[in-house]
Amino acid sequence: MTNYSAGRRPLPTSPFKRPAEPPRKHFAVGDRVTHDGFGLGRVISVEGQGDIAVLVDFGARQERIAHPYTAMFKL
Predict the structure, then answer these.
(1) Quick one: which of 14, 36, 57, 60 could link to 71 by a disulfide (CB 3.0–4.6 Å)?
(2) Phi, psi of 5, rounded to the nearest 5 degrees
(3) Which helix (H) or strand (E) holds 16?
(4) What global pTM score does this model have?
(5) CA dihedral 66, 72, 73, 75 (to 10 degrees)
(6) What are the CA-CA distances from residue 49 to residues 35, 57, 63 (Å)?
(7) Which 3 state secondary structure label does DSSP give 9?
(8) Cα–Cα distance measured from residue 56 to residue 10, given in angstroms and rounded to the nearest whole number
């Protein structure tokens, strides 16, 4: 079965609003963050101006977290 709704664009005159995209998250070196799986940490490296990935020090280990950062939030 083909999913036609995935590629369809809404008409400009449609009364139904397009779902809003969440704002992009940007992190800088030194930012304190929290991650749903790893806990509290500090950003120690940023790849591609924060659009590609960040390296975070969580104390016991360092993890590379890639965009879209759904489980990580700036404190």
Answers:
(1) 36
(2) -70, -20
(3) none
(4) 0.70
(5) -100
(6) 20, 18, 17
(7) coil
(8) 39
18 SS3 class: coil
51: tokens are 């659009």
- Tokens 């998250």: give the residue: 25
Q: Give the pair of three-digit tokens for residue 66.
A: 């890639």
| Sheet with 53-57: strands ordered across | 62-66, 53-57, 39-47, 32-35, 72-74
How far is residue 45 from each of residues 4, 41, 56, 58, 71, measured CA to CA in Å? Answer: 41, 12, 7, 13, 18
Q: Show pLDDT as tens, one digit a residue, over the chain (75 residues).
A: 555 555 677 777 878 877 777 788 889 999 999 999 999 999 999 998 767 899 999 999 999 999 888 899 999
